[in-house]
Design brief:
2 copies of one chain form a homodimer. Chain A is α/β, with parallel strands linked by helices. Chain A has helices spanning 15-18, 26-36, 51-64, 82-89, 98-110, 118-121, 155-165, 186-199, 227-243, and strands at 8-13, 41-47, 67-71, 94-96, 125-127, 131-133, 142-145, 148-151, 176-182, 205-212, 215-224, 248-249. Chain A has 9 helices and 12 strands. Strand 2 (41-47) of chain A pairs antiparallel with strand 2 (41-47) of chain B, so a sheet runs across the interface.
Chain lengths: 250, 250
C-alpha cells in the first residue's frame, strides 16, 4: 500500500475519454475549483466502463486521498455502471431511492422530456448510506459515498453538482499563483530557477514553455497560499529573469 | 496485483495538469493515434512531479499493459525529473548519452538558441539500456525503456516523437467506429440500445448525449475492427432509432 496523501484525486470514468472521442475538461475544471478552496489534486485517473477497473480505482484512491471526485457513468444506458461499482467498492448495496424516484417521476410527468421509463428509473438507484448531490440542471442526482463524490460526466451538469459539494469539504488555505513570463528559453533560466527553488523550498516553482503568436518564451509559476510570500517570490523571479538578460512580458 | 491487460496506458506527468493550469490534450491525441494502429488504451493517469508517485505509476502500468506512453518532465528545469524516475522504476542507472550530448552540442552551436549550458545538458541524460526516440522538432530526444515510451509534454514535440515510435509497436487490427445520432434523449433509446448490445456482444456500444446549437440529442457509437460488422450494427442502430420515434441526423 502506498502512503496516504492529503488532498483530492479525480476519477474520470468512460471509454469515450480513453478512445479519444471526447476531450476531458472536467479534470481541469475540478482542479481549479478545488484550488480556490485550498484542496490540492494529487492524482487523476481515467478508467474504462469496466466494473473491476472502476472498483479497484475507487478503493485505491479513496484510501489514499481525503476526497475523490468521480465523473461519468451515472446516466440511463447500459454502459452507465458507476453507481453499482461505487456500492461494490464500499461493500454496500444499492436500490431505488424512494425520494429520488418520486422527484424524478414528477419531473418527467410535468416536463415534456419523455416517459419515466425503466432506463431513466435506473438513475434513481443510489447506494445505501449515500447522501445525495443535487443536480439543479437535469434532475437525476449524484451522490456522496464515504469520501467519494459521484458526479455526472456532462460538464454543465458536473459543474452544477460541484456547487452542492462545496459545503461538505474542509477547506484549506486557498492556493493562488503568480506568473512571470519572458521571451527566454527554459534552458536559459533553469539554473536561476533551481537556485530560487532552493531559496524558497515551500513554494513550488514551475516552468512552462510557450509559443504565443510565433514568439517563444517561458512562463514561471509560483504557487502558495501566502500572498506576501508569493509577492516576494514574484519579485525574485523578475530579478532572476533580468539577470538572465530578459524582461518580463504579459 | 491486478490482472494483466492488453493494450496501452498513458501516463501524463506534471503538476501543471493537476493544478488545472494546463489542459491536457496529449491523452486524446495518443488515444486516437493508437486506435488507428489497433492498440486500445486501457487507462490514463496524471501524476505530479514527485519521484515516488512517478516511479510507482510507471512500475504498475508497465507491468499491466503492453505499452506505456508517458508525456512530460524531460525538459531542462529542476522539476523535470522523468528520466531519473524512469531509470529508478526499471532499476537501472542514468548518465549523459555521448551521441545525444554531441548532437545537442552541435545543434546549440549552429543555431542561435542560447548556450548549451548545464541545464540544457541535463536533457542529454538517458537511462542505461534505453533506445532513443527522435525529436525532429527541438532536438532533445525521448527514449524507450522496456515497454515505456518517454516523450515530451509539449504537444507538437510529443506528436513528432510518436512518429518515431510507430514502427516499434505490434499493430493490432485498426479500430474504427460508426456513429448514429438522433434528437432523442438517452433514456428514450437506452432499452433498445441495451438489447442491441446483447445482440452484438463483441462490439462495444456507447451512448453520448450532445447539445448542438441548443438541440439536444444522443450519439450512439459502435467500435470495432470489422467493417462489415460495423455496417451491420450501424443499420441496426438506425432501425432502433426509428422504432423509438427518431430519425438519424448528422
Amino acid at each position: 500500500m502506498d502512503g496516504r496523501r492529503r488532498g483530492a484525486a479525480i476519477l474520470v470514468i468512460g471509454d469515450e475519454i480513453l478512445s479519444g472521442r471526447t476531450q476531458d475538461t472536467n479534470t481541469g475544471y475540478i482542479a481549479r475549483w478545488l484550488a480556490q478552496l485550498g484542496v490540492p489534486v494529487g492524482e487523476a485517473r481515467v478508467v474504462p466502463d469496466i466494473e473491476a477497473e472502476i472498483v479497484a480505482a475507487v478503493r485505491h484512491l479513496s484510501a489514499r486521498f481525503d476526497y475523490v471526485f468521480s465523473t461519468g457513468g451515472i446516466g440511463p444506458t447500459h454502459d452507465d455502471i458507476t453507481a453499482d461499482c461505487m456500492a461494490k467498492a464500499f461493500g454496500t448495496g444499492i436500490d431505488f431511492h424512494p425520494a429520488v424516484f418520486a422527484a424524478m417521476a414528477a419531473r418527467y410527468a410535468s416536463l415534456n422530456i419523455g416517459p419515466f421509463n425503466e432506463a431513466r428509473q435506473r438513475m434513481a438507484r443510489i447506494p445505501y448510506g449515500a447522501s445525495l448531490i443535487v443536480n439543479g440542471l437535469s434532475g437525476a442526482p449524484g451522490f456522496q459515498l464515504g469520501n467519494v463524490f459521484v458526479m455526472a460526466g456532462i460538464p454543465a451538469v458536473m459543474q452544477a453538482m460541484l456547487e452542492d459539494v462545496r459545503g461538505r469539504l474542509v477547506a484549506g488555505q486557498a492556493l493562488s499563483s503568480v506568473t512571470v513570463s519572458a521571451h527566454l528559453g527554459e534552458g536559459t533560466i533553469a539554473a536561476g530557477l533551481a537556485a530560487l527553488q532552493k531559496q524558497y523550498p515551500d513554494i513550488p516553482l514551475g516552468s512552462y514553455p510557450f509559443n504565443k503568436d510565433g514568439k517563444f518564451g517561458t512562463s514561471l509559476v509560483a504557487r502558495g497560499s501566502d500572498a506576501a510570500r508569493l509577492a516576494e517570490v514574484k519579485a525574485a523571479l523578475t530579478a532572476m529573469i533580468r539577470t538572465a538578460g530578459g524582461e518580463p512580458v504579459d
